[in-house]
Amino acid sequence: MKNRIGCIDFFRGICIIWILFGHLFVWWMDYSIVPFFYDTIVPIFEPLGAAGFLFISGVSLQFSYIKKFNESIEQEKRNNRILRNTYFIRASILLIIALFFNLGSYIQEPGISHIFSWWILFTISITLFLYWPLLKSSKKARFITATLILILNPIIKFTLQTFSIRNSIINFFYLLLYPLDDRQNPLIVFLPFFIYGSCFGDLIKEIDFNRKDDNKTFVKKYSLPLIIISIGLILFGIFFQFPMFILRNSFLWVIYSLGLIILTLTSLITFEKFKIINFNSKYNFLFYYSYYSFSIYLSGFLLMLIPAPSLNLFNFWVFYFITMALFTIIVILIYDKIKALFSIKYLMSRTSEFLALKIEEKFYKHKYVPLSYLLERLKMNISSSK
């Protein structure tokens, strides 16, 4: 199998571009001009934003970490301990970044709840902490866990909502877990996306994208069943209590979102398997949006500082495509010059690995790891190629 599956980068790139679109739409668009577009058209593709990003994050994490665990089975117990510590340090660094990010909401509108707003970085960081016990569990166990959370979510919400009227403590937890701002990504609502994504990652691990003689088996075993399931989820989400599926974070929105995400990703995997699209082409600009996903997400907030006037639907698309073209050119130039040194994900991974080794040095009396080790690891990446 190839070291990098192009359709995964392609899908993650779509998610980041959609998230940027949503941000720019809110910052630059005059809502009074386009209420129908914002309330009806945008929600149809909304799952390809934060929900899709959580899903593909689960795919990538399960795929990469299980591979690392398998590589260290025959080595010392120390290797798995380093892997575990690296995982939690990385989650902790992401949590710190998320809390600093949330400080912006707190400064704009003081309130303790804003420190714990469920924006994507905060949701992913907490998800990583909670997911560790499931990392080495079976695909079936993870699927059942995600399904239970999915089913219990509306029950928990209804129960907390009912008793929150009479009890201020319950009301606090209700607003914490289910914020009134539906643009946020509450943990209980979005955790199933990540876990289902991890199950999907196990499926992808079984696919050999280089073989051409097993295409019929691939369609029968993977492609066709997943397409049927995803279409069923989409139809159920849409037509059961229509049009509730456009209400973000609702139960039916989650069902519809899972269907759209699985259908889109399955289609992309099928295209790559059958060589219909070359996702590893140098012209695939979505690779850079995947590679620098967190960096681009955070950099995108600089655009909020641009004093753009309220735009109509036509002007918005002009400004949007110009902005994305400039963004694309910039990230391509950055990749050519410094590779992963602009990638927050990469920097977190390398820093986490270094700190995990320092823990080994401090508490388990293993060999000294100088700071130069980290610097050399960072420099090595600059000379690598895509």
Low-confidence stretches: none
Oligomer: single chain
> Rg from C-alpha positions?
22 Å
- State the separation between the terminal residues, measured CA to CA: 17 Å
**Mind describing the biggest β-sheet?**
none
Number of strands: 0
Mean pLDDT: 87
β content, as a range?
Answer: under 5%
**Count of alpha/pi helices:** 16
Coarse morphology: globular
Structural class label: mainly alpha
Compressed to H and E, one letter per element, the order equals: HHHHHHHHHHHHHHHH
> What's the helical proportion of residues?
over 70%
Describe the secondary structure blueprint for this structure.
Layout: H1 6-28, H2 35-45, H3 50-71, H4 77-108, H5 112-115, H6 120-131, H7 139-164, H8 168-177, H9 187-205, H10 215-239, H11 251-273, H12 286-291, H13 293-299, H14 313-338, H15 344-363, H16 371-382
Helix pairs in contact: 1-3, 1-11, 3-9, 4-6, 4-15, 6-9, 7-8, 7-9, 9-11, 10-11, 15-16
Labels describing this entry:
mainly alpha; 16 helices; 386 residues; 72% helix; globular; single chain
